[in-house]
Every structure is written in structure tokens, then in C-alpha cells.
Amino acid sequence: MKHWTEGFDDDDADEQLVRPYTITSGRTTPERADLTLITLVTTLPEVSTQAALAVRRMQPEHRTILGLCRESKAVVEVAAKLGLPVSLTKILIGDLVDSGYLWARSPQPLTRAGGLPDMNILEAVRDGLRKKL
Fold first, then answer.
1. Which residues pair with 73 in a beta bridge?
2. What are phi and psi of 124, to 5 degrees?
3. What pTM was estimated for this model as a whole?
4. What is the pLDDT tens value at each position of the chain, 133 positions in all?
5. Distance (Å, rounded) from C-alpha 23 to C-alpha 61?
6. What is the rounded (10 degree) CA torsion for 21, 27, 91, 88?
7. 67: closest CA among 96, 47, 28?
8. What is the pLDDT of residue 112?
9. Contact at 8 Å (CB) between 95 and 58?
10. Which residues contact 71 (CB under 8 A, 6 or more apart)?
11. 55, CA 20 to 30 Å: which among 6, 10, 70, 100?
């Protein structure tokens, strides 16, 4: 997907520039507070033909997100692939989550209930680092 500013030249007055807020219908901040940079998003399987028709009527950015997230991706990865600001990407992802096309989940915490780190995770990281050296 081309970045929204790709091909824009300050000297070229004929070039049309699509502002990010037009992609989000004027919204400038995400409505969902649960979407962070590391929230994982995954496309849900389509349930009906009506859903497939609705996808075809979506904005190109929404359809691209659905394609990218067939395998779990972090919000920040999706933003990088789209070449759009993270805040704008969060709005688009929020639309898809609210519509039932995407599933979002926070990454698993590295600590247990008592606030102490899980030793199994720390040992796995340590062992992985030792293999690299």
C-alpha cells in the first residue's frame, strides 16, 4: 500500500493530498483505550456472505489491515506496514474490532499475580541470549 504522502511534491500544485482525518471520517483520537502499541490484532474468519460484501465496501486501509492481520500483528507493526501514524491506525483497527472483523488482545504480562516476574520466562530469555553468544 502506498503511503498517503507518497508522490506528493510541494512544487506540484496539481497533486491531490488526502489528509489522514478523511480516512477516519474526521476522527482524530481513538475511541478504544485498550489498543496500545503492543496490542495483538488478528482477523476473525468471515461468518457470512453479508460480511464479505461489507468488507468490499470498506475503505482500502480497512481491507489492507484485514489482510495484514491474518496472522497476529502488533498495532505498531500494522501502522508501519500501512505507513500511517499509529493514532490513525488505532482508529481504523478500533472500527474493525467494533464491527467484529478483528480480535484484539493485550500481550501476556511477564509477571505473576504477586508482581514478581515469571522465572520460566526469564530463564528462557537467558538461555536464548546464551545461545546467541
1. 41
2. -65, -40
3. 0.66
4. 666 556 655 555 444 456 677 777 778 788 888 899 999 999 988 755 566 667 777 888 998 999 999 999 999 999 999 999 999 999 999 999 998 899 999 877 666 666 677 788 889 989 999 987 6
5. 8
6. 30
7. 96
8. 62
9. no
10. 42
11. 6
C-alpha cell at 77: 507493526
Residue length of the chain: 133
Distance in Å from the first CA to the final CA of the chain: 38
